[in-house]
Amino acid sequence: MAELSMHEDLPFDEATRPALVSTGNLPMHTEIRRLVTEAYELYRDDDSGAVADYIPVLAQASPKLFGIAVVGPWGRSFEIGDVETHFSIQSVSKPFVFALVCDTLGYEAARVRLGVNSTGFPFNSLMAVELNAERTMNPLVNAGAIATTSLAPGATLEEKWASVRERLSMFAGRELTINAEVYASESATNLRNQGIAHLLRSYGRLYFDPEEATDIYTRQCSLDVTAHDLAVMAATLANGGVNPVSGDRVIGPGVCRRVLAVMASAGLYELSGDWLYQIGVPGKSGVSGGIVTVAPGKGGLATYSPPLDAAGNSVRGQLASKYLAERLGLNLFASVPAQGSPPRF
Ligand code: GLN
After folding, report:
1. Rounded distance, CA 139 to CA 147, Å?
2. Which residues contact 126 (CB under 8 A, 6 or more apart)?
3. Which atom of ligand 1 is closest in space to residue 287's alpha carbon?
């Protein structure tokens, strides 16, 4: 799209104008707890999909791991299963680094430099870079994500890395650290990402040294998180950019809604259309098995389960997210309640 004029955020306090924001509440606490438990029991024995192994150390994760966490807009959490297990955040980091870059450059400048259209290709596609004049395409596929990381504030590799780690930690409400084993394993095997970075550089669509940008990107993907952390990060995006547990403002509301727009169109790679069609809210998956789902104004949902489908999205995570999005009333496109008992969606 050429020059679409973007209005700045309207000058009123959104909290006082509920008619202009997404509406509705989550069900009662006891009901959320019951539904989270139900989703867990329903899918814990589904053993389809395969654990990622293209980053060698990821293959060691148990395919049985499964956790679900919901964090509401006041920071209350509802969790079950392996929600305290640490795993590398991988691609789930991408929307949060994009948020940092949008906050730094402004979301319109970020769109011009990175793009916000989906590719229809796998997450690490070089073909997508070659076939589309935008090259980077969007911040949630590797090309756009490495370009996004290259725009992180800071003049040196270490400064950029510090700003990325610090802002992702604010989203999580605790200090995140690197999983050294994952970082070493991915650094030794990420030739493809280095290739993408060099290709972008040749097109003038990478904004820092290719090797260093890829290194910061690899560090960002190696940050250790739990499903609980991811639910808090998702809830921060659901809450207009304020972390509902720490109370800290992490990004502004205008940036927040643009990040969610990109997640809605590109969060699950080439299956993003299927996700939006079935689940109806922005989401983001990663190859270690995490998925975040954001229901604006209502809360964040995170799932963790390592076995993936062919596009690299957690199988149990997608099933549980769909089940919960329907029963918790998260779908952004639903304007009337589901009918019947059990409800038909
Ligand atoms: N670090 C991984 C990579 O770049 C992230 C991919 C993903 O989670 N889909 O290949």
Report:
1. 8
2. 192, 195, 196, 199
3. 8
- Judged by DSSP in three states, 224 sits in strand
Q: CA 223 to CA 206: how far, in whole Å?
A: 23
What does each C-alpha distance from 214 to 5, 184, 210 come to in angstroms? Answer: 32, 13, 6
Instruction: Tell me the angle at which helices 107-114 and 142-150 cross, rounded to the nearest 10 degrees.
Output: 130
Find out whether 313 and 140 touch, Cβ atoms under 8 Å: no
pLDDT tens digits for 190-227?
999 999 999 999 999 999 999 999 999 999 999 999 99
For ligand 1, pick from 217, 221, 269 the residue to mutate: most ligand atoms within 8 Å of CB. 221
Domain annotation for the chain: domains and CATH numbers:
29-327 (3.40.710.10)
Residue 229 vs residues 112, 191, 337: alpha-carbon distances, Å = 31, 30, 31
Residue 286 C-alpha to ligand 1 middle, in angstroms? 7
Whole-prediction pTM: 0.92
Residue 16's Cβ-count burial label (10 Å; 0-12, 13-18, 19+) is exposed
Q: At 147, which helix (H) or strand (E)?
A: helix 142-150
Q: Which residue of 55, 89, 91 sits with most ligand 1 atoms within 8 Å of its CB, as the best mutation to test the pocket?
A: 91
Write the CB contacts of 310 (distance below 8 Å, at least 6 apart in sequence).
none
Return the amino acid letter for 291: I
Ligand 1 pocket check for 193: Cβ under 6 Å: yes
Reported residue count of the chain is 345
Alpha carbons 285 and 287: distance in angstroms, whole number: 7
Rg (CA), the chain: 19
What is the C-alpha to C-alpha distance for residues 307 and 305, in angstroms, rounded to an integer? 6
> Is pLDDT of 24 > 80?
no
Per-residue DSSP letters for 42-60? HHTT---SB---SSGGGGG
Residue 58 has pLDDT above 70, yes or no: yes
59-89: per-residue pLDDT in tens?
999 999 999 999 998 899 999 999 999 999 9
